[in-house]
Amino acid sequence: MRSRPDSSGWLIVFTVLFVALWGLSPRLAGIVGKSPAAFLAAQLVLTVFWVGITIGIVRHIAGLRLGFWGRVVGFALSAALLVVAVQLRLWPPLANLWLIYGAAFLGCVVSVIFREPNILLPVALMSPLVDFWTVSAGPVRRVLEHRPEVLDVVAAGVPAAGQLAPLAFVGLGDFMFIAMFLAAADRLRMNSRGTAAAFFVLVSLAMILVVFWSGFAGVGVPGMVVIGLGFVAANLRHFRLSRQEALITSGLVIAVAILVAVIVRVR
Predict the structure, then answer these.
(1) Domain that holds residue 195
(2) Is 227 part of a structural domain of the chain?
(3) What pLDDT, in 10s, does the model give residues 55-98?
(4) What are phi and psi of 33, to 5 degrees?
(5) Does residue 175 fall inside a structural domain?
(6) CA distance 202 to 234
(7) How far apart are CA 133 and CA 255, in angstroms?
(8) Reduced to 3 states, what is the DSSP secondary structure of residue 20?
(9) Could you tell me if residue 1 is inside a domain?
C-alpha cells in the first residue's frame, strides 16, 4: 500500500533534522558564548527541538500506509541497523535514530489489535501505572542504579549543548507507545493531529523538568504518565462509554491513583 503523500517526505525531513541537530549540539557552546543565561536558553531550545523532531519522526512513521507486514519489515530492518550501529561503534546518534525507528515501527505493529476507540482508553489509563512502577521501583530503576551503560542501547539520548554525550534519555517503550497511539488514532479516525500536538507539549514539559530540575538528576521519570494523559485529553470526544463502562473507567482511574500514591509512599 502507498503512504500518504506527505508522510514519507516529512519523515525524510525530520530524519535530516535529527542528524543536523546532533551535529550542531556540540558546537552550541562556541556559538552562544560563555554567558550562563545564553547557555541555558540554548539547552532549552535544543531540548524542545529534539522532542519535536523525534515525535515528528514517530508521527510520520505511524502515517505510512505500509500494511502489517510492511511495518514488520520496517521494524526488522531498523533493529538490524541498530545492531550494526552499536556493534561497529558508529556515530552514537545513528544508533539513537534506528532505535526510534524500530520502536515506532513496533508500536505501529502492535496498534492493529485495537478495533475501536473505547479499547484504547483503559490502555492509556493503565500504562502510566505500569511505567511508573518500572521506572520508580522496578527494573528500569535498577538499571539506572547498577547498569547505566545499558541506556545507550535501549534509550535515545537528549543532546546536550556543547558536548556529544547525552544529557538525558527517553526509553524505547515511550516511543513505541507514542507510535501505537498515533497509528491507532489515525486508523480509527480519531484526533491523530491533536494527539501528536499533545504529546509534543507534554513530553517537552517533562523533558524540561528532567533536564533543568536537579531533583530529577539520576532518577527516571515515567514518560507514559504524560503520554497516556495526552492521548486521553486529545481524544475525549471519541470515547463513547455506556454508563457501566463509565463507572468501571472511573473506578480504574481511582485505583490507579491509589496505587501510584502507595508506590510513592513505599519509596
Answers:
(1) 7-266
(2) yes
(3) 999 999 999 988 999 999 999 999 999 999 988 888 888 999 99
(4) 85, -170
(5) yes
(6) 12
(7) 14
(8) helix
(9) no
Q: pTM score > 0.90 for this model?
A: no
Per-residue model confidence as pLDDT tens digits over 17-53? 999 999 998 887 677 766 778 888 888 999 999 999 9
- The mean pLDDT of 243-260, rounded to a whole number, is 72
- Radius of gyration in angstroms for the set of CA atoms belonging to the chain, rounded to a whole number: 19
Q: How far apart are CA 42 and CA 79, in angstroms?
A: 32
Establish if 2 belongs to a structural domain.
no
Q: Buried b / exposed e across 223-240, counting CB within 10 Å, b at 16+?
A: bbbbbbbbbbebbeebbe
Q: Hey, how many other C-beta atoms are within 10 angstroms of the C-beta on 246?
A: 11
Q: How far apart are CA 183 and CA 99, in angstroms?
A: 18
**Residues in a beta bridge with 156:** 170
Structural domains of the chain, count: 1
38 is written with which cell numbers? Answer: 545564553
Rounded-to-integer distance, Cα 257 and Cα 237, Å: 23
Report the distance separating Cα 134 and Cα 215, nearest Å.
19
